[in-house]
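1st attempt posting a full record on here, be nice pls
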Amino acid sequence: MCLFTELSNKYKKLGNKEAVEVIKRISPIAWVHINFLGNFVFSIDPPDIDIASMVAGAKLF
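the predicted structure (as C-alpha cells):
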C-alpha cells in the first residue's frame, strides 16, 4: 500500500478532482527539506505502518 496511491483513491471516490491533481504533482524526490546525513539504524523487523488510518485522517482542502 502506497500513501500517495491511497490518498489519490480517497479523493477520486469523493469526486475531488482538484485534490487528485495536487496529489499527482507531489513527488517525494522533490522533497528538498529531507537530508540523509547522519547515522541510521534500520530494524530487521520494522513496525507495521497503518497507511489506511493516515489517509482517513488526511485533509488536503
